[in-house]
Every structure is written in structure tokens, then in C-alpha cells.
Amino acid sequence: MDDTFHNLQMESKNHIENLVKWFQDSKLVEKSEEGERHARALFNNPTEEEMVEFEQFKEAVAKLAEEQKTSFDEISKILAEEGPKLVEAINAGLMAFKGSTESKNEIVCECYDSIDDKPSNLDEDIA
């Protein structure tokens, strides 16, 4: 669990959306709007852009363990099993997004081999 969180943190992917997904994929909270609200509450409802720190993450895991009447270690084990899949899914999504934007850039570049080939009204369309 620790390694997965630190990997997310190094890639600046430790925001609430990914952590909620991790809890849901691990079947620790329901995959529903109610489950998402519950998971966010465990983290004290951070904003979408706010990065969750490791201590805050551990506090959320401890709260969840207490609610489910199980140990911190048991929740950690469940998260550790699901963690690598989460990181893989996040990276796959990022690569797909990069691929789609790169192919669009290639199309534009292929259309205009030089600046002289650009239509005169192109700058107006962009502005």
C-alpha cells in the first residue's frame, strides 16, 4: 500500500479522485455516488486539485478500518493487492490521452509543411 501511494505521489496522481477509485476498486467502499461521498469524507473532503498527503491517507485508512471493525493491516493488505492495478490503469489512461493529442498534432503538422502553406485566415480562426 505504501509503495503504491508513494508511486502516485511521485507522479502527482495522489488526488482524491484516484484515491476514491482505489478504495472502490478494492471493494472497501461502494462504486456509487454514496460510496464516493463516504470515501471523500474519510479524507475530510479535500478539493479535486488538492493532493492528499501520506499521513492524511493513513488516517483515512485507519477510519475505514475502525468503521469496518477490522485492522489497519487488513485494509492495507487489501489496498496493496489492488494498488498496482490502479497505477497501471491511471498510466494507461494517460498514455491513451497523450496518444490522442499527439495524433491530432501530427495531422495539423502534415497539413502545413511550411508556414508559407498556411492559409491567411488561420490566425483569425484561432483568435
Automatic annotation (TrEMBL):
GO molecular function, one term: tubulin binding
One of the GO biological process terms: microtubule polymerization
Pfam families: p25-alpha
Family from the record: Belongs to the TPPP family.
Protein name: Uncharacterized protein
